[in-house]
Design goal:
Largest sheet: none
Number of domains: 2
Structural class: mainly alpha
Shape: flat
């Protein structure tokens, strides 16, 4: 009979001695881990693509073009002229059409419709890939020990993301609204990054054998792990702040740098009542807070990079170098986006590099926790 399951966080030598391995067992588990990793890499790529397409959907003003949530039947687009006219008529009933796009032609409507439809189709594709993979691994009993719950969690979060997506869209259909509520957009984007973070961490765990992870954990660099933890949470907060800026197009109102309309802090940033509304709804305040968050993130990233360069592990040092390059690129893109009044191509690049930076921070954090062993000769 097999011995008790061991946690990857358990130190070698703790607990009862493991049972002798059965022939072929290690190979089967290794193959299952590789298959699970490939599946999660595919999911990660699809989710990142969905974030990029979602950003472009918002930048093109297309997010409210489909006014109903039909998870199943909505997969089919309008197939006839009558269908298109009916869909267009539904759009003409919402405030965005009346206040922003009044007089839009059917051809112009079709352009924004396809953006939103494509975004929703990607969501359906992500759900399908998850469901097929999960059921397949479950049916053939290919989940390594401890991974069934993790895979199920990804599906639950994905389902919640679809519901939150409609909750976000519905806010833009209310009276007087011409776009979705910025705080709902921030929640929607934040959950996407949570899913990206979990997928990336799982992929890194699956990329190395459990025995390697056990040994690597004994040489973990605790201070680096802690500082990258702070950096990860701060980057996540900065992403949410960026969503608040994007949600009210605050990036197009103050297009000088390092000042804002010639001053450090615009006095109108506190003009709304009650006070808390300014942090969600005032372009000056949301952009100011996002700028300050970028400066703090850059400073903490510089500290983390200096600490990371002192690591004895070559792969860890390289990971911190990549993280620093991504951080500098993101700050530069953020400044350029402000100076150019947030054109779609810069705003989209800024969002994509945010994903790359987040992944780079996670990789540096992972290697701080699980350093890659190397020979003494190679430690230079």
């Amino acid at each position: 009979m097999a011995g008790p399951k061991r946690s990857i966080f358990e130190e070698v030598g703790e607990g009862a001695a493991p049972a002798a391995p059965r022939p072929g067992g290690i190979a089967r588990r290794s193959g299952a881990r590789r298959g699970l990793q490939i599946w999660m890499i595919l999911l990660l790529l699809l989710v990142v693509l969905m974030v990029v397409v979602g950003g472009l959907t918002r930048l093109t003003g297309s997010g409210l073009s489909i006014t109903e949530w039909r998870p199943v039947t909505g997969a089919l687009p309008p197939l006839s002229e009558a269908d298109w006219l009916a869909e267009f008529e539904r759009y003409r009933q919402i405030p965005q059409y009346e206040l922003v796009n009044r007089g839009m032609s059917l051809a112009e409507f079709q352009v924004i419709y396809w953006w939103e439809w494509g975004h929703r189709q990607l969501g359906r594709l992500v759900g399908l890939v998850w469901a097929l993979g999960f059921l397949g691994f479950l049916a053939f009993r290919r989940f390594p020990p401890g991974w069934t719950g993790r895979a199920l969690l990804l599906g639950v979060l994905g389902g919640a993301q679809g519901a939150i997506g409609w909750w976000m869209v519905s806010s833009g259909l209310a009276e007087g609204m011409i776009a979705v509520a910025s705080y709902r957009l921030a929640i929607h984007l934040g959950l996407a990054f949570l899913i990206i973070g979990l997928l990336a961490w799982y992929i890194l765990l699956l990329g190395r054998p459990e025995t390697d992870l056990l040994q690597a954990r004994r040489t973990r660099e605790g201070r680096l792990f802690s500082v990258t933890g702070m950096l990860m949470y701060l980057a996540f907060l900065q992403i949410l702040l960026g969503a608040l800026v994007a949600g009210i197009d605050a990036g197009r109102g103050y297009t000088d740098w390092p000042l804002m309309n010639g001053v450090f802090f615009p006095p109108e940033a506190l003009s709304l009542e009650p006070l808390w509304r300014n942090f969600f709804e005032h372009p000056a305040m949301t952009q100011f807070v996002h700028r300050m968050g970028g400066y703090v993130l850059l400073a903490l990233g510089a500290v983390a990079w200096v600490m990371g360069r002192r690591s004895v592990h070559r792969a860890t040092r390289a990971a911190f170098d990549v993280m620093a390059l991504a951080l500098v690129a993101q700050v530069g893109l953020g400044i350029a986006t402000v100076l150019e009044a947030a054109p779609w191509y810069l705003a989209s690049a800024h969002q994509l590099v945010a994903v790359i930076l987040f992944l780079a921070i996670l990789n540096a954090r992972f290697l701080s926790q699980y350093p890659i062993a190397q020979s003494i000769r190679s430690r230079r």
